Amino acid sequence: MTPVAAFERVMHCLDRAHANGFKVKAFAGAMETVRAVPADELRRRAVAGTLQELPGVGDASARLIREAIASEETGETPAYLSKLESETRVEVAPNARPYVDALKGDCHMHSKWSDGGATIESMVRTAIELGHEYLVLTDHSPRLTIAHGLNHVRLEAQIADIEVLRERVAPFRILTGMEVDILEDGTLDLDDDMLAQLDVVVASVHSKLKMERRQMTERMVRAVASPHVDILGHCTGRLVDKRPPSDFDPDYVFAACAAFGTAVEINSRVQRLDPPPELLAIALDHGCMFSIDSDAHATGQLEWLPYGCAIAADGEVPAERIINTRPADDLLAWTAAPADAKR
Question: Are 261 and 287 in contact (CB under 8 A)?
Fold first, then answer.
């Protein structure tokens, strides 16, 4: 294992553990240094004991570099990485296991094109390692400037890049998509002609989350009624223990989702875990379809799907009503079908 690969895997483990703070920043800074320094120089410094003279490399980072260099000869996993792999493993609840095994892909994730921390190829390679058959890349739309959202020019460039990458990773499938903002009046933050080019569209509310109940209900209903919207993302907008859920009439919104063939996302992101059980039950009663998604912003977060699967299992969601249990071609047939054929 090269030092660069060791640092990348450490960051993957820290991401899946939802770690933050000094340790993450320290390893991230050291990783950039390691990427910039030639391998021969790292080896010379490891022997000479001068790795800590490099910018951002402290005792823990230097130890990882030395262990990674040694592992290239011994084949052993660096000790710190081995410890981290064990400590950060995502446990799968027994009742969630059938759902995890049934999922064929992930319909909501972000890359460096918007506010993600990894390249598209890194996300793809990780998804392949996890046994997925496809992923949908859903970077943010332009209104979300804080997340470096994509306008139509950048989206077209991304689609062109995806087309090139598809050839290298086949038979794995990369589907085009976007997490498009639902604007205050319920319209979408991208022109219809661009939305029509995408394989899967997730629509989410990211602004004015404290909007009055009736207005928020009307806003969400108008969005899910769009023929371009396939999935309603993180419907309450809540952040667990940090931000309360938005107030809307779930009967109206989920009835609209069922009527217009828009799936309700079960968001696996540990800060969201959305919808909560009481709203999931209402969506089930209205006959909604669902999509269990990671909303990953880094490779390690692609491993968060078991959290969403646990929500689905606890709510007794039938597997046949989860759209990403379907192979890619069947998913695309579903997104392309008229609303009355999606029920």
Answer: no
Question: Residue 142: is the preceding peptide bond cis (ω within 30°)?
Answer: no
Strand locations in the chain (E): 105-106, 134-137, 173-181, 200-204, 231-232, 263-267, 290-293
Instruction: Give the domain ranges of the chain.
Output: 3-87, 94-341
Q: Which two tokens stand for residue 49?
A: 């004991």
**pLDDT tens digit string along 238-269?**
999 999 999 999 999 999 999 999 999 999 99
Q: Write down the pTM of the prediction.
A: 0.95
Q: What are phi and psi of 5, to 5 degrees?
A: -65, -35
Architecture of domain 94-341: Alpha-Beta Barrel (3.20)
The confidence score (pLDDT) of residue 187 equals 98
Class of domain 3-87: mainly alpha
Give Cα separations from 151 to 64, 96, 204, 221, 252 (angstroms). Answer: 40, 38, 17, 24, 31
Is residue 342 very low, low, confident or very high in pLDDT (cuts 50, 70, 90)? Answer: confident
